[in-house]
Amino acid sequence: MAQDGIGARVARKEDKRFITGKGRYVDDMRVAGMKHVAFVRSPYAHAKVGGIDTEQARNMPGVLAVLTGSELVADGIGNLICGWMVHSKDGTPMNMGAWPALAPDVVRFVGQAVAMVIAETRGEARDAADVVAVEWEELPTITDPAKALTDGAPQLHPEAKGNLIYDWEIGDKAAADKALSEAAHVTRMEIVNNRLVPNAMEPRAALAQYDAADDHFTLWTTSQNPHVARLVLSAFYNVAPEHKLRVIAPDVGGGFGSKIFIYPEEVACLWAARKTGLAVKWTGDRSEAFLTDAHGRDHVTVAEMAFDANNRITAFKVDTIANFGAYMSLFSSSVPTYLYATLLSGQYDIPTIHCNVRGVYTNTAPVDAYRGAGRPEATYVVERMMETAARELGVAPPELRRTNFIREFPHQTPVIMNYDAGDYEASLSAALSASDYAGFGERKAEAARRGKLRGIGLSCYIEACGIAPSQAVGSLGAGVGLWESAEVRVNPVGTIEVLTGSHSHGQGHETTFAQLVAERLGVPIDNVSIVHGDTDKVQFGMGTYGSRSGAVGMSAISKAIDKVEAKAKKLAAHLLEAAEGDIEIADGEVRVAGTDKKLGWHEVCLAAYTAHNLPEGMEPGLKEGSFYDPANFTFPAGAYVCEVEVDPDTGHTEIIQFVAADDFGRVINPMIVEGQVHGGIAQGVGQAILEGCVYDPESGQLITASYNDYAMPRAHDLPSFKVSTTETICPSNPIGMKGCGEAGAIGTPPAVINAITDAIDNNDLAMPATPEKVWRALRAGATPMRQAAE
Amino acid sequence: MVTVTMTVNGRQVSKEVEDRRLLVDFLREDLELTGTHVGCDTSQCGACVVHLDGKAIKSCTILAAQADGTSITTIEGLANGAELHPLQAAFKEHHGLQCGYCTPGMIMSGVDIIRRHEGQLDEDTVRHELEGNICRCTGYHNIVKAILAAAQEMHGEVRQAAE
Ligand code: FES
Ligand code: FES
User: Fold this and answer.
1) Which CATH architecture has domain A483-628?
2) What CATH code is assigned to B2-74?
3) What architecture is domain A299-467+632-789?
4) Which of B29, B80, B131, B136 should one mutate to test binding to chain A, selecting the residue with the greatest count of A CBs within 10 A?
5) CA-to-CA distance for A196 and A290, rounded, in angstroms?
6) Cis ω for the linkage preceding A469 (within 30 of 0)
7) Fewest CB atoms within 10 Å of the CB: A40, A165, A434, A768?
């Protein structure tokens, strides 16, 4: 193995610029003549937009232009789209209301933009935005998705009668009902998955420039997928033709899903750049992020799980209402359907599953993918059910899971997925032993002597990532293929540039991708540079989300390396007068196996470019590309154990220990993988005990619209984590990788809530389990988990 | 408008700014020192932490005019030429950053924590004193490790120098 190749804990190449303040984020960019944008946003959750008086704003100091929604619509700028078509169970396509980038007639959530001001400075733009006078006519609002479905609820879109976007199902309802009626035991729960705000630390920003001489647009934006942005901006929003638009996503300060989507501000800035001839920059502040970034989760679910007399699951039935907010965002329709219901088998062999999902419009910010996207919601339902069922059945929670584990692969679930490889027993055993699960009783007794309530909770999650193959996702309604592209350019001196369609916003691709190349071609990683995030440099790409960069993005690189390697070997065989099959590439050399005949790697590369002596018919150069379309999803899985102590006087929960044992398949850089898990756990703990997005049910105002009101996990809210990996190699891609980015956010919430409910002996606890809620649950005295037992 | 004069990373600067100009905007916009970041509008996130006369402050919370006559150090001025500050090096070695957005503020806060405790630090203290800085990526585990490691290294150096 190369010293810094696969499996090595290499420090990150990209760190130097970040630790010295030399990162280049969108708001750091400045171009000649750049002006600043501020948006005029709705103070109401639902209102008709009457006249917009821009007169006073236009006369404010520094103001250059004020543009409104009706001008945008008149210029033919298209409505924002949802790129994944889902059909209701009656076969009708989903009901989608129109979403213009600046609302000309109706606003449907607080913060929706109706106009934009362009001024010399940011301060002047904001001052002027404040005095744009809009005639608002308030309309009734609805924020609760279940209530939005009732008769007489305020209606958001004429296209969606009763606020229903779709009524979708998967699986066999009749079989599930039959199994439930014949079961020895049924566990029933109502489970709420709280709405979250992704809160990447870098607020969204967009800088748009139009060059009239060349009729060419450039957009710098905080995006996880610049090519998808270019495609959508061109094909649907009509702001610039694809071949004349360059989208650059430079350093991006975190995404977690929230920067997958193409937002109104990007559309409006590009449109304004052309309309006014000015380069314009908008940088959101945190309040705008809370109001307008796509939120995550927000499900209400009723679940029933049937068991036979041997504690084996016979059926699982799930009914979910998913809140989509006021508009359908880019991928939103797929999140509570194909990314959620298809994972409801968890790690378990369940013969019958039925899931019904109703997607609903409400007067809240649009909801879309957030770290894990559907998988955390599924795992939360499955793992809350398993722990509760174990308590009701009087079985140890690990035992009930073991009884039901899938043990043979490949495994076809009743909900589409075909799990290719896994060893759930291995990760569970690793987590139980790392957490000393067996010794918990003693620790609980010791805590009790100190007046504390100790609890332990388990979660065995599975996810489907490396999202693909294209044909499969196409048949499920996806509007795009989910392959990835790469180009490996070997220079005449032997250094290598890798161009990838993946995008790194903290995941460390500049290092891990280089490690793969180092491993394969025997060069030091410093001789490899990774190019990403620029549509003018990289041929095409689908970006980074759903833990796809490794399994799909690196596989594309691997395929391109295959081609480079084959060509280099053919050339070397010719130069060394040897058989192609005897050539091996390692340690910077190209050798004939079993002899001392060899060339330096750089000598072969140079020969490819001098082209003085190439094999018959070989083209000069050493540069190859690949589009890789995966054979299947990948299925990372793992077991998490959380141990907590609750203070009965205050309801405060302290996480004493958190153990994660994950199976990510092949690991390229363990240090980076651990970091990804840490971050995911922190977000999972955040969801479980701190974070919750709250709208006022009457007015639709966002109550948690700043860090004063929305509890972000801080250093002292978290313990140090014990993380480790077990390994089953993924057979579906050439590297054997599964993906690690979302695991922590998926596996953590049920582990934490299972631990707290264990500590307080009351199962009736919703996320976030704030001290107040825990304190009330403790004082409620009842133990609904036993009452619910049949 | 008001004229402010201060020393920033060892260099004296003097500029006319709007009365309402925040120090962070002065650094980022007027001096083009974009290493100092803005993550919020309520002084909660700490992405903007710099040192004013050697002490950590949130540069989004004071006006440029209030910093008149002071000496400011930003993340760009922390390294000694090509030689990284021990905490910068520790962040890299212990993988204390992912997207890098919170990192300048984290490092500036971390240096201040180490300074105030003269290296006598434990995990609990570090976690508690990082209260003003939010990181969404790392889960803090490696940030805490990096600060403890740098504290030990710097403290060791101090001791050696004293011997
Ligand atoms: S920007 Fe200063 S604390 Fe957030
Ligand atoms: S490294 Fe991304 S916010 Fe801290």
Assistant:
1) 2-Layer Sandwich (3.30)
2) 3.10.20.30
3) 2-Layer Sandwich (3.30)
4) B136
5) 10
6) yes
7) A434
